[in-house]
Amino acid sequence: MDLHYTVLLFSVVCLVLTDNSRDSRILLNDPNLLISQIQALESKIQLLTTAYQDQQSTIHALQSQVQTGSNGGAVYIRWGKTSCSANISETVYSGFMGGSDPNSVGGAANAVCLTSQPVLKEVGGEGQFMGGAEYGSNSFGPTANNDVPCAVCRGLHDRSVLMIPGTDVCTPGWNLQYQGLLAAGHENHKSATQFICVDHDAESIIGGESPLGLGRQIYVVRARCGSLECPPYHNSKELTCVVCTK
Q1: Is 95:88 a contact under the CB 8 Å cutoff?
Q2: pLDDT single digits (tens) 18-75
Q3: Model pTM?
């Protein structure tokens, strides 16, 4: 018998005996009185048992909600790809990289993954513009001037996400989402950019081969020894990167 149930039953017996001792003595040779007391006891046990079962059901439901909520949730952008890794993530949406003109002094530093199904408004005013993005060299696989695709991914099992620059190996205890090459805008361009991780098996957008300009360009990132310790880094070698979840 469940320990909690046994304690509950003992408590009810003590409660019934205590309540009745205030009114009358239980006569062991009075069958009707004994039957009455037993029936009252059984009724209280049944009520408490029902309440106990309801509480257990509530506890199990809450545990299930907590367990469900702890699975998945890590969101990241997979640069250079149109979809996410099957079995470990789901594709929230796919699109293409967008950003400011590299020659814009006030251009936004971050790149974004634009949706291929925009909802636009015309409200007047200007000050900032959004362009597309192109590979600035052939180093990523697709030839230079090809447009850069992207996919927004959600991990199915993990909640935290981390991009590690300088390696393509995840920290122990973390799970691999994708490996790639570290990328950013050209250092001679006026507009600031951020470092991103472009997939090692990068793709391009069909029909996006023309060098139209007025958009972001991305290049591989090379190590430059000096303030950067060499070794372990090596002068003029490209930096890898990896996106991991946990």
Answers
A1: no
A2: 554 444 455 556 777 777 878 888 888 888 888 888 888 888 777 765 554 456 688 9
A3: 0.68
